[in-house]
Design brief:
23% strand, single chain, alpha+beta, two-stranded antiparallel sheet, 5 strands
């Protein structure tokens, strides 16, 4: 058990024990959802890295995984000085 301080509005008394199990998540489900969201966005039109970062912080890892799965995603640099680039799904 981990001793955590919780705000009273969470329904727990301050200082109540909270088990680690409560904080577990299922990464494969989350990652699959992120990949789907990126594919859905790229199927509409090219998207900037700024847009994709709003879907998930590690968007580049999801793009890498999608490429390994056979999706043809191209990267176009708009301005290397600013770091903005665009991703496009070729179907």
């Amino acid at each position: 058990m981990v001793q955590r301080q919780r705000p009273d509005d969470c329904g727990r008394a301050s200082g109540e024990d909270v088990s680690q199990k409560e904080f577990q998540f299922d990464p494969p489900v989350r990652i699959a959802g992120q990949k789907k969201a990126i594919l859905d966005r790229l199927s509409e039109s090219p998207a900037s890295n700024i847009e994709l970062a709003s879907i998930c912080i590690r968007y580049s890892a999801r793009i890498y995984e999608l490429r390994k799965a056979g999706y043809d995603i191209q990267t176009y640099h708009q301005d290397k000085a600013s770091g903005v680039c665009w991703y496009r799904l070729h179907e």
